[in-house]
Amino acid sequence: MTLDPLVSIVIPVYNKGAFLRETLDSALGQTYPNIELVLVNDGSTDGSLGILEEYRSRFPDKIQSIHQANGGVSRATNVGISASKGDYIQFLDADDLLSPDKLANQLNLLEGKSEWTIASCEWVNFKDQVSQFSRLPYGVFQDFETGLDWLLHSWNKQEMMADSSWLTSRSLVDLAGPWNESLTINQDGEFFMRVLLRSEKVLFDTKSRAYYRSLGAGSVSSQKSYEAAQSLLESFVLYEKQVLDIEDSLRIRKALKRVFMKFIYDVYPLYPDLLQDARNLIKKLEVREQTLIGGPKFQQMSRLIGFENALRLKRFLG
User: Residue 223's pLDDT is what?
Assistant: First the structure.
């Protein structure tokens, strides 16, 4: 790795014109200078294309802009990866932001480390003003000895990481393989699952932040369709296949059981066939001891009357 590695910031864009300038300014405003922006317009119809072309003409040495018919975020991201030239890859959604020193801080952490080491940082939620953000008390905001340890913590505690929090070497991205273009939800979670299974160490950057824009109820409701739920469950099945190839142990199976239980918790009472699929997947894991998820009150109720009875009661009580 060179002393001055190139970082490719890959930004797939679909109808994010209202936020795109702020995101591009955030990327271009990084204190680390050796960057390129790889912008992939995924068939936008809202004026995003004009903004991308404006920025490309203003910063021709920093930006390459690619335009394609709409094919989904995974395909756009894969196109961006293929076109990028960086030693490191920074993924960034077209409405999210990075703190100005994010790349510099994480590159400092990774300097002298194996190319199989990945860097993370805190991510926070915001809506309109980046100064008005809300923090999450997540345990994933720390170092981990292996990427598998990170995954087990995340699955057991039902925590997640925004994809913009990571800084990933090209070697890890290439080894993990492309984003799964058949998934319509949790594409980033499934991709980074494969990255983390191949990561020797996770280093947490305590100084930087990724800002995740919460777009409100409309965005959430679009994720509640049958197709989204089906795709989410499929992403969890892919978790199972990948991780059991690395390690088949009780600790792995307990964590996977919590993943499938969380699916039931989130989807119930919709889509009975998918709920049954999840139950069958749990049964095949053969984890006989009681496994708990959710908050303290829900866990206490689960101990007394069982997980699904507690879930029925919770939904009945509203």
Answer: 66
